[in-house]
Amino acid sequence: MQFKLYHLANSRSQRIVWLFAELDIPYELIISETNLTNAKKNAKKVVSTKNNAMKFPTLEIIDKNTTITLTESSAIIEYLCQQQQKLGVNLADEAGLDFCFYKHYVDASLMPLLALKQVFQQIVVHTPWLVRPMSQLYKFGLNRSYLDPELKIQLKQLNRHLESHHWLAGNTFSYADILLWFPLHAAKYAFPRFEQYSALIRYLNDLEARPAFQQSLKIGAWNADQFQYYWSMTRA
Ligand SMILES: N[C@@H](CCC(=O)N[C@@H](CS)C(=O)NCC(=O)O)C(=O)O
Asked: Which residues does the UniProt record annotate as the domain GST C-terminal (predicted)?
């Protein structure tokens, strides 16, 4: 079986590059150019996805003469971990329920808040400058009235959990941790008072100190300054 990963630098697909480094299995990496329109157009020429929309990450699973295309970061991560029998936690284990909750929570509850921050930021950027103050006001209002208070509740809960658990599933590093890293790292810049959450800072440092993580930054062409700028812009 062979794997081919379509990756967009500085995006959610960095998690799959990291996962491949943790699993230490061979794969082919296609890094798309950073211009999203061109990246999608070029990748679409060679990939046929189920829903006809090119997303990053997209994984091709090539087995003999058959190629299966898989999208959705959490589905790709679950598939690879089950296939390799690594980085998962059994439901019957002590931390099984935490693992089960957090692996679903990340993309279902935390990521949508950050994605909405980004949507409103992009509306500001694409509004003609004469009327831009209006869209800036909308963005400010939404951040103040909904997104930041919601994020605060979620970050506080995560912080509490990580005060008494080294990883999401206790002592076991799992693929739920790989899933959480991207939105948490984005929240560090997108949420105004992130530094108050000392357990989250400790947790991010521990995730980022892993040799496979460090290795994957180079492989995935990660640009820390660009990422920080992109997410800092979403603050009110
Ligand atoms: N829920 C999907 C979202 C994938 C996604 O939207 N990726 C972005 C990059 S972070 C993308 O491909 N954007 C192009 C587009 O939406 O057209 C996942 O987590 O894999």
From this structure: 105-227
pLDDT tens digits for 25-59?
Answer: 999 999 987 666 666 666 666 665 554 568 999 99
The answer for 24, left when phi > 0, alpha when psi is -120 to 50, beta otherwise, is left
Q: Domain 96-232 adopts which CATH fold?
A: Glutathione S-transferase Yfyf (Class Pi); Chain A, domain 2 (1.20.1050)
Q: Which residues pair with 186 in a beta bridge?
A: none
Global pTM value: 0.94
pLDDT digits (tens, 9 = 90+) for 101-125: 999 999 999 999 999 999 999 999 9
DSSP assigned state of 191 = S
What is residue 34's predicted lDDT score, i.e. its pLDDT? 64
Q: Are 231 and 186 in contact (CB under 8 A)?
A: yes
Q: Whose CA is nearest to atom 13 of ligand 1?
A: 55
Residue 152 CA from chain centroid, whole number: 19
* Diameter of the chain measured on Cα atoms: 59
DSSP run (H or E) holding 30: strand 28-32
- From the CB of 107, is ligand 1 less than 6 Å away? yes
Paired tokens of 14: 């960095």
> Measured between alpha carbons, how far is 145 from 208 in angstroms, rounded to an integer?
32
Would you say domain 2-84 falls under CATH 3.40.640.10?
A: no
Best CA proximity match to 99, nearest among 162, 151, 155, 172: 172
